[in-house]
Structures are given as structure tokens and as C-alpha cells.
Design goal:
Elements (H helix, E strand, L loop, with lengths): L2 H9 L12 H4 L4 H12 L4 H10 L4 E4 L2 E4 L2 E3 L15
Antiparallel strand pairs: 1-2, 2-3
Length: 91
């Protein structure tokens, strides 16, 4: 299920727009500052628990859902960088 379809399912049936409405780019950013801000926005959201539960149930591929960061369909503590790790600099 795509992120847009999942978000539509979560928002179906609620009367007021959640705090994330119109800010989708923030919730799919790879920058740590944006991820922290997205998690903060979720704290006061009335559908955060349902959002997170649906993201778990549908294995949301990535992004912040209900205050939790998802990567490869599972909640993670921090985003794992893409690509090869940097070479250690010899002292």
C-alpha cells in the first residue's frame, strides 16, 4: 500500500484535519532535523495511535507515522544512512 493510500485510509472519517495535513514532505524527509520536527508534530495529533498502528499493519515503507520513524516497513530508532560507510581516517 502506498504512503498516500495509507494516509487516506487513516484520515477517512475524521472531522478535523490533523497537524500533518499539507506537510507531507516533512514526514518523508531524510534529514534528522525534519524527522525530529515530524515526531514533535505527531505528539498532539488525535489520530497518532491509529496512524502508527496502521503503519505497522501495512508495513509502511518509510517516513514518520504516528510519531514513529519507519524504514523498510518497521519502526526504527534512527534512520540508517544509505550507501557505503565512510572510510575511517587513520590517526
Amino acid at each position: 500500500m502506498s504512503a498516500l493510500m495509507l494516509m487516506s485510509k487513516i484520515l477517512d472519517g475524521i472531522d478535523t484535519a490533523p497537524p500533518c495535513a499539507g506537510r507531507m514532505r516533512l514526514f518523508f524527509s531524510h534529514h534528522p532535523v525534519d524527522i525530529a520536527e515530524a515526531k514533535t508534530v505527531c505528539r498532539g495529533c488525535p489520530v497518532a495511535d491509529a496512524c502508527r498502528a496502521d503503519a505497522v499493519a501495512h508495513r509502511a515503507p518509510e517516513g514518520v507515522w504516528g510519531g514513529a520513524l519507519f524504514q523498510c516497513g518497521v519502526p526504527v530508532a534512527a534512520r540508517v544512512p544509505v550507501g557505503r560507510p565512510r572510510k575511517a581516517v587513520a590517526p
